[in-house]
Amino acid sequence: MLVQFLDDLNRWSLLLISPFIYPEKLLNAEHIAFVTESISAQTENLQRAPDSSKEVVKWSDYCSPLAYKPGEPFKLIAEASVDNFSSLGIAFLEDRLQMDNGMVPHKIVSVHLQESALKELAQEAPPVKEQSTQMDEVTPAGTAVKSGLAGQSEEEKSKPEEEGDHEEEPNNLSGEHHHLHLSSCHECLQLENSTIESVKFASAENIPELPDDSSSKLEEEKDDCLEKGMKRVNLAGKPPNVLIYLGSERAKGKFEQVRSVLQECVDAESYTIYQLHQEQVLRDPWIDNSLLLVIATEEPISEGNHKQFMKFLSKGGKILGLSSSFAFGGVRIKRKNKLRRTVHELVVSKKDSPEMKLDLMVSGCVFEEGRKEDTGKVKTLCRLNNAEKDPVIVHLTHGDSGGEAILCQAHLELDSNSMDVQTEEDFNLLKMSNTKRCEVLKELLVSLGLSCELSELPTLTPLYLLSPDEEIHLAFLKWLEGNVDAEGLRASSKVSLKFVSSCDSEAEVTPSLMPVVTEMGSFSSEHFSLKTYQQNLQTKKMGKILLFSEVTTSTMNLLDGLMLDVPEEMGLIAVAVRQTQGKGRGGNVWLSPMGCALSTLHITIPLHSNLGQRIPFIQHLVSLAVVESVRSIPGYEDIELRVKWPNDIYYSDLMKLGGVLVNSTLMETTFHILIGFGFNVNNSNPTICINDLITKFNKEEGTKLKPLTADCLIARTVTVLERLIDIFQEKGPNGILPRYYKYWVHSGKQVRLHSEDGPTAWIVGIDDYGYLQVHQEGKGIDSVHPDGNSFDMLRNLIVPKH
Fold first, then answer.
1. Are residues 476 and 591 in the same domain?
2. How many CA atoms lie within 13 Å of 414's alpha carbon, on the beta-carbon side?
3. DSSP class per residue in 361-409
4. Are residues 555 and 665 in the same domain?
5. What pLDDT was estimated at residue 670?
6. What would the 3-class secondary structure string for 272-299 be?
7. What is the pLDDT of residues 402-443, one digit of tens each?
8. How many percent of the chain have pLDDT more than 90?
9. Domain assignment present for 202
10. How confident is the model at residue 249, as a pLDDT?
C-alpha cells in the first residue's frame, strides 16, 4: 500500500476532541494515520441496503477521528492500531465497512503526518480551557466525554441502549471546528492533488488476518481534562451534513436550486449539502449524522416519515421548512388558495431592531394554532401585512435536547427568476426585496446553529498575459525584454509583476508580487474564453494586451507599473473573475461575487483635445458603453439597462447592477487614465444582473434570447467605448449626449439640493463638462457635482461642491 506524506493540513477542520489539540496525545509509533474518503450513496447509484448476511464493521469502532474536510468526497483523517487498521481494510475489501455518516467508503490510504506539521498544530491549537468554554456555549447539557477517541469498550457496548445517554447526543458540530493553515504549506505535498491508493487495489497478502475475536477490544484511555471540561460531543467524527428533502420530486433542477441558495448563505467550507431521497428516510442512518434537515416539498408527509423527522428533532436536530406541508405541535397549516403564488408584503419581527418589511411570493398557506398544550413553544417570526396578520414563518421547539424547527410559508428559497412571475410589478417588487430575502434566510439559518460568516478570502492566482492579436502579443514580449530586470521583474509601488514563461502550482502569489505567465498556450479558464473575447473585440488599440486572473486583489492595481511606458498601440486591460479588494467610489472596498464582469482599461487622452478638456465626461462614456454593449446586440435593444449619472449602470431606475471608477494621471500633455468598471452579468443574488433582465424579457415577449457572458460584454464594452471616444474627440459633447439621454434614468426627475430639506430642482441634462444640470424655479439652471457617496440619487439628495 502506498503511504502518502501529509504535512499540509490547510483546509482541513480539526475535531475538538482530536488529539491534535493535546500534543501529549499525538500518534504513537504503533499507530497508523490514514485518510478515508466517502461519497454519498446516490453518487454511484448505491441505493441497495447492506447485505444482512455479512457482519458489518462500523468505522468509528476501529479508529479515532482527528480532522475532516467537507465536500464530495468527504474526507476524514483518523488513527488506529495496526490490528484495527487491518480490520478496517478487510471489511473495506469485502464491502462490510459502514461509515457513521451514512456515506459509502470509497478510498482508504495510510498517510504519514509530518512532524513539522504536528508541532505547528500543537502551537496553533487553542488552550484546553478556551476549547471547553466554546463547547459549553453551544452544546446542550449531557454527560462528559470519557476516554475520548478510541471508541467504546466491550462493557459499554453491552449496555442496553436505553441505559446509555447517547440518545441525547447532540450532532451539531457547527462552529466547533478550527481551520488549520500552516505557514509551510507551499513546501508540502498536497493530499488533494495526489493520487490516493485505494486499499481495494492493494494486495490482500499485505493485510494481516483478522483475529478470531473480530470484535477487537479497543483500548480505553482516561483523560481528565476532557472529562471535566467538555460536554458530550460527536465521537464518530460525524460530518456537518445539511440534507434537503424534496419528497418524491426527482427533478435534479429543484435540488440544485435549493442547494445553490443555501450555499450562497452558509460558509461553503464548513458544510456539505446532500439530497435526502424519500426511500432513504426510513432506511439510512441520517438522523445521527446531520445538522440540518431542509424540507422543501408541498407533498403530504407520510406518517412514517413524519415520525422520523420528529425523532430527528428529539435528538437535537434542526429543521427548516420551506413552503412545505410539515408541521407539528403548536401549529397547523391552513390553506388560503387566494394567496397561492402571489406576491405579498411581509413583516419580519427582529429581536433588537425595528420590524423589516419585504415582498415575497407566498405558498398559499398560513399557520394557525395547533395543540393548546404546545402553543407556548411557538413563536411567530414573520406575518403577512394584512388585516388578519397571518403568520407565515414560525419557530417551534421540541424535546429536551435542543431540537427546533423554523417553518416558512413564504418562498425564501426562490427569487424572481425561479418563479412564474406574472407581472412586471411583481418582478420589480421581488427583485427590490432580494437583498432582504437573503438577509432573512441567513438570520434563520444562524438561529438554527449554522455559520453564515463570510468564509476566508479566496486564494490569489497567477496572472496570464493574453492577446487576441498574436503579432501584438509578440511585440509586447519584445518590449518586455528591455523593460524588466534579469529575473523578469517589473517593479511597482502597488503590484510588482514577475513575467515567467510558465508557472507551477507552488509559485507564490501575494498582493504586492504576482507572477505573469507569458505562454498563451498554457491558458484555460472555465470563466473566460479568449476566443469569445477575440470575436467581440473590434478595436484599433484598446484592450489588445490582456492580464487575466481568476482571483486578484483589484484590477485597478495591476496596470500601475506598466501603463506609463507601454507603447500606445498596445492597449492594456486587466480582467478578473473575482476581486478581494475591489475599489469603489469613496474608497469603498468590496469582495466581488462570481458572475461579475470585472475589468480595468488603460487609455491615453491628449490634454489639448475635446475630451482632454472635459475629463469628467469619461465616466459617462464608459457607463454608456456598458449599456450599449448589450442594447446594440440585435434582439436585445429593449433590455431595460440604463445609465445613472454620474457613473452607475441600472435596471430601469430601480436597482444598480454596475459602476465605473476613473483615475487619471497627467504626464506632460497626456492623460493616462485607468477605467475600472464592474457589472453583474450572471449573479442574480443578492440583487440583480443582466441575465435576469434577459430572462424577464423572454418571459414577457415570448423570445428566446440567450444569456450573455462576461468575456463577451467586456470586449463589446471596450469596442463601443473606443468608438464613443472617437466621436467625442471629433464632435464634442453634442456628438454623444443624444445617445446618453436615450438611456439615462433622470429625465424629468425632481431632486433636492444641499440636503433632504433643501430647495426643489428639476434635472434638465448635463453641461459641457459632464456635470448635472438642474433647474431651480426662479433661479435658472445650475450645475451640481457629486460628492463621493454622499451623492445618493435614490434619496433625491445632491450635495453641490462650491
1. yes
2. 24
3. EE-SEEEEE--GGGGGGEEEEEEESSTT--EEEEEEEETTTTEEEEEES
4. yes
5. 93
6. EEEEECHHHCCCCCCHHHCCEEEECCCC
7. 899 999 999 988 777 766 666 888 888 888 888 899 889 999
8. 36
9. no
10. 67
Are 478 and 424 within one domain?
no
The answer, yes or no, to whether residue 362 has pLDDT greater than 50, is yes
**pTM here?**
0.62
Domain termination residue (choose one: 743, 759, 786) = 743
pLDDT in tens, 449-497: 888 876 567 789 999 999 999 999 999 999 999 998 988 899 888 899 9
Separation between Cα atoms, residue 341 and residue 246, nearest integer Å: 19
pLDDT digits (tens, 9 = 90+) for 151-183: 333 333 333 333 333 333 333 333 333 333 332
Q: Which residues pair with 273 in a beta bridge?
A: 242
pLDDT greater than 60 at residue 278: yes
Over residues 344-355, the pLDDT tens digits come to: 999 998 777 788
Cα separation, 15 vs 12, in Å, equals 10
Residue 335 CB neighbours (<10 A)? 12
Whether residue 556 sits in one domain with residue 640: yes
Identify the CATH number of the domain in which residue 493 sits. Answer: 3.30.930.10
Q: Which of 517, 483, 511 is nearest to 499 (CA)?
A: 517
What are the backbone dihedrals phi and psi of residue 483, each rounded to the nearest 5 degrees, phi first?
A: -130, 20
Q: Residue 648: which residues within 8 A CB-CB, separation 6 or more?
A: 623, 656, 658, 659, 660
Structure-block grid coordinates of residue 313: 428533532
DSSP conformational letter for 585:
G
Which CATH number covers residue 253?
3.40.50.880
List CB contacts of 318: < 8 A, sequence separation 6 or more.
172, 291, 292, 293, 403, 404, 405, 448, 449
Bin 40: left if φ > 0, else alpha if -120 < ψ < 50, else beta: beta
pLDDT at position 113: 65
Residue 313 and residue 399 in contact, taking contact as beta carbons nearer than 8 Å:
yes
Domain end marker among 101, 124, 147 = 124
For residues 658 and 565, state if they share a domain. yes
Alpha helix (H) residue ranges in 59-212: 82-93, 115-124, 128-138, 154-158
| Residue 188 counted as domain residue | no
- What digits encode the pLDDT tens for the residues 108-157? 887 766 655 555 545 554 444 333 333 333 223 332 222 232 333 333 33
- Report how far residue 472's alpha carbon sits from residue 542's, in angstroms, rounded to the nearest whole number: 12
Residue 432 lies in a domain: yes
Listed in sequence order, the residues at least 6 apart from 54 whose beta carbon sits closer than 8 Å to its beta carbon are 94, 95, 96
770: left (phi over 0), alpha (psi -120 to 50) or beta: left
Query: In 3D, which of 373, 570, 354, 352 has the Cα closest to residue 474?
Result: 570
**686 cis-preceded (ω within 30 degrees of 0):** yes
Kindly report which listed range (109-113, 293-297, 371-375, 668-672) carries the lowest average pLDDT score: 371-375
Same domain assignment for residues 335 and 403: yes
**383 inside domain:** yes
Q: Which residue has the cell 457617496?
A: 789
Do residue 738 and residue 768 come from a single domain?
A: no
**Total tally of structural domains belonging to the chain:** 4
Residue 214's identity, in one-letter code, is S
Please name the residue that has the C-alpha cell 470585472. 598
- Side-chain-facing half-sphere of 428: CA atoms under 13 Å: 10
306, 331: one domain: yes
Which residue range is the domain that position 754 belongs to?
749-800
